[in-house]
Automatic annotation (TrEMBL):
The lineage of its organism: Bacteria, Bacillati, Actinomycetota, Actinomycetes, Streptosporangiales. InterPro entries: ADH-like_C, ADH-like_N, ER, GroES-like_sf, NAD(P)-bd_dom_sf, Zn-ADH-like_protein. It comes from Streptomonospora arabica. This is Zinc-binding dehydrogenase. SMART domains: PKS_ER. Residues 12-307 form the Enoyl reductase (ER) domain. CDD domains: MDR4 (cd08270). It comes from the Bacteria.
Length: 310
């Protein structure tokens, strides 16, 4: 089969080449991939010098089951699925049942491929914050993949969403997704917030932490700013009554025992029904990976990029 693998000599540090077909374990299904979506973290990782040439990459992919799991744990052959894992930018991938969800018949595989990392991260972080009904929720990096899903899910949970986006052209779009307030940076937010989902890090994390009310929580899900977050001593003193605030980290694979299948199926159904908008802003064949990756790394791409495999 063909797959995208690390190649430091190639444009975008990836090359499409022939590799061996995956050999599914008894608890894994074999999926013929139709579309994949890109995340900033995996693209940056592929472009780093830390991974040897020939390493397969890719977290998110959607397609069709062509071989059911030998132990009967997964969906039947012919089921359309969205999948999470590694080595997904390929014509075939082997996936355990816990890392895939069913996709409605007739749904767009490109849209379904945006669900795993971005949708699951948004859903699980918001669950960690507790009830959002009537509470203010700040989302940094709101125009990105995780941020966009978070804005929509937080608004549906009854939160008063404060979206942070450096692109003023995105303000009306974010309000259409459910944001009550749109600001260019956390320091511009005037009223305290109960919770923060921070996908940017650096100064944004520091300023967002300062905006938390007493008992509030900030969850760090990304560091796209690629700069240090330095908290001054007074930031931890609770000036103005902001005591008992916390910073939590988040890693999607943090609990190796978690089964994502139900959540992936629900998110895929919501996207297919039009109740969640994945915000696909770039789409093309997977031969154009370098073009999509460059736009993502240079900050020219907001939302999700989808590559069609064929």
């Amino acid at each position: 089969m063909r797959a995208l693998v690390v190649d430091d000599a190639a444009e975008g540090h990836l090359a499409r080449t022939e590799v061996a077909d995956p050999r599914p374990a008894p608890h894994e299904v074999l999926v013929r991939v139709e579309a994949v979506s890109l995340n900033y973290g995996e693209v940056a990782e592929a472009a780093s010098l830390d991974r040897p040439d020939g390493t397969p990459v890719g977290w998110d992919a959607a397609g069709v089951v062509v071989r059911a799991a030998a132990d009967g744990s997964g969906p039947a052959e012919g089921t359309r699925v969205t999948t999470l894992g590694e080595a997904g930018w390929a014509e075939l991938r082997a996936v355990p049942a816990s890392l895939l969800g069913a996709v409605p018949e007739g749904a767009d595989p490109g849209a379904a491929s945006t669900v795993p990392v971005a949708g699951l991260s948004a859903l699980h972080v918001l669950r960690r914050t507790g009830s959002l009904l009537g509470r203010r929720v700040m989302v940094t990096g709101a125009s990105g993949g995780v941020g966009r899903y978070t804005v929509q899910l937080a608004a549906r949970a009854g939160g008063e969403v404060v979206a942070i986006s450096r692109d003023p052209a995105r303000a009306d779009e974010l309000r259409g997704l459910g944001a009550h307030e749109v600001r260019a940076e956390p320091a511009a937010v005037e009223r305290p917030v109960f919770a923060v989902l921070d996908a940017v890090g650096g100064r944004y994390l520091v300023d967002a932490f300062a905006a938390l009310q007493a008992g509030g929580v900030l969850v760090s899900v990304g560091r796209s700013a690629e700069e240090d977050a330095v908290l001054a001593p007074e930031a931890l003193q609770g000036a103005g009554g902001g005591h008992d605030r916390s910073i939590r980290t988040f890693f999607l694979y943090g609990d190796p025992a978690v089964d994502f299948s139900a959540d992936l199926s629900w998110l895929a159904a919501e996207v297919a029904a039009g109740r969640l908008d994945p915000g696909i802003s770039w789409r093309g064949p997977w031969t154009r990976f370098a073009e999509a990756a460059g736009a993502l790394l240079e900050g020219r791409l907001h939302g999700k990029a989808v590559l069609e495999v064929g």
